Amino acid sequence: MKVFTFKNTLRNFLFLVIMLCITTEINAQFYNKDYVAKIYIKKESEFFTFAATAENLTPTDINLRYDFSVYSTDDNNNTSRNNQTDRFFLKANEKKVLSTVSVNYSVDDKIVLVLVLYDKDDKPVGQDRIELIYENGYQRIVNEDVLNPKTAASQDQAAPQDGYVMDGLVVENTLTKAGRDFYKYFYSEYFNRGMQTKKNILIEEVPGRMRSTRISVKIDDKLIWQFFSQPKKSFLQSMAIAALDRCIAYLQQLQKQKDNTLTRY
C-alpha cells in the first residue's frame, strides 16, 4: 500500500512539473510581444556595462514597472541579490534606457542579470536574462556569440525577435549651426535610448525658404521627418525627439514585415 501511494505521489509530482513547464513555455510566448525588455552589453577596458532597456512596440502610451536584478553566487553557493525597481512611462514606439550596472572582469562569482517588465496589474509582459561565468581569470558571457550583435551579424545569424541587431550610423550632412545643433540633440536622444540598427540614418540640411533651411531625416533614402529650421533650442530638441520617434516606428514596421515574410515562408 505504501509502495502504491509512493508511485501515485511520484506520478502526480511529475505531472505537476510537466504542466508547469508547459505553462511556462506558453506564457513565455507572450513576453516581449508588445513591450520588449532587452539588456544591452558594452565592453569597457576593465568591466562590462549592462543597460536595461524597454521598448514599446505599440502605438499607445503605457505605464509599466521594471525590475532589474543582479544575482551573485560565490564558490560556497551563497547567493546575494541587488535589484532596482521603479515605475516608468513609455510613449508609443519609444525605447528607453531604464538603468545601468557595471561588472568587473575580475569578479570570480557567477553573475546572472534578469530584467522583467510588468504592466499595471503586475503581470510580466517582457523579460531578458544574461549569465556570466568566471573562467581563466575573468568573466565571460554565456552564449556571447549570440548576444554580441557584431559577432552574430558576422555569422549571419537570425535577428532576435525581441530587438534589433544593428551596426548602423547616424550620418550628418548639415550646413548651419541650427542643423548641427539638431544633429547633436538627435544623436544624444538616439544614444540615451540605447538605439541600435543596421540601417544608416541620414540627417540632411538644404537651403529652404527665405533665410531658413530645410532639415530632413532619412533611412535608406526614405523620408521619415522633415521641417524648416529655427535656431531656438527648445524647438530643435522637440524636433529631434519627434524625428527619432518616427524613426523607431519605421524600424519597427520594417521588422514586423520581415517577421511576417519569414512566417509565411
TrEMBL record:
Q: Which residues form the signal peptide?
A: 1-28
Question: Which Gene3D superfamilies does this one have?
Answer: 2.60.40.2420
The reply on keyword DNA repair is: no
Which domain of life does the protein's organism represent? Answer: Bacteria
Q: Name one Pfam family in it.
A: CsgE
The record's listing under InterPro entries reads: Curli_assembly_CsgC/AgfC, Curli_CsgE
Q: What keywords appear on the UniProt entry? A: Signal
- Described purpose of this protein according to its UniProt entry: May be involved in the biogenesis of curli organelles.
Name-wise, this protein is Curli production assembly/transport component CsgE
Native organism:
Aequorivita aquimaris
